[in-house]
Amino acid sequence: MEHETELERKFARIGDGLRLQDGAVIEGYASLFDAKDQGGDVVQQGAYQKSLRALSGAGRAVKMLWQHDPAQPIGIWDEVREDGLGLWVKGRLLQDVEKGREAAALIGAGAIDGLSIGYRTVRAKKDDKGQRLLQELELWEVSLVTFPMLPSARVSAKGDDPNADIWREMAAAFEGARQELGRG
């Protein structure tokens, strides 16, 4: 499973882990290591290191997007790094951008609490349980999203929708359909 070419996305519901400070600064985990997502994938520690070094060496940065839409950058990631838990990000929502202001309001109200990565798989393998172990990823962007997909990164809150998994699956299906329509 070397070097897949299609851009993929991986969601992480952050809950209390996504913090908004001073109305514009956000931080949290965009990906957690060794946590199986609903697609059966597991990101392994070290998966982002080579990509982060390459971006830094080229003077480029990981993009901050709204709902994975490349036409809607909403801020700047000032810090993106791996630690013992996963991929940690800290950045600023741009208050001069309408979507940046909207994102700040939605995060502050608790309506948005997820981050999602856009990446290309460089190296992966299947384990004996059929899980895809993501060993090396080329990280392109980290988005603020409505429907994250990594249940183990989720922090429960009062009023959690018992049908949240169904809504996430529907959102993933709609996103897949949108991508297929975009190719035609």
Automatic annotation (TrEMBL):
<protein>
    <submittedName>
        <fullName>HK97 family phage prohead protease</fullName>
    </submittedName>
</protein>
<keyword id="KW-1188">Viral release from host cell</keyword>
<dbReference type="InterPro" id="IPR054613">
    <property type="entry name" value="Peptidase_S78_dom"/>
</dbReference>
<dbReference type="InterPro" id="IPR006433">
    <property type="entry name" value="Prohead_protease"/>
</dbReference>
<keyword id="KW-0378">Hydrolase</keyword>
<dbReference type="GO" id="GO:0008233">
    <property type="term" value="F:peptidase activity"/>
</dbReference>
<dbReference type="Pfam" id="PF04586">
    <property type="entry name" value="Peptidase_S78"/>
</dbReference>
<dbReference type="GO" id="GO:0006508">
    <property type="term" value="P:proteolysis"/>
</dbReference>
<keyword id="KW-0645">Protease</keyword>
<feature type="domain" description="Prohead serine protease">
    <location>
        <begin position="22"/>
        <end position="158"/>
    </location>
</feature>
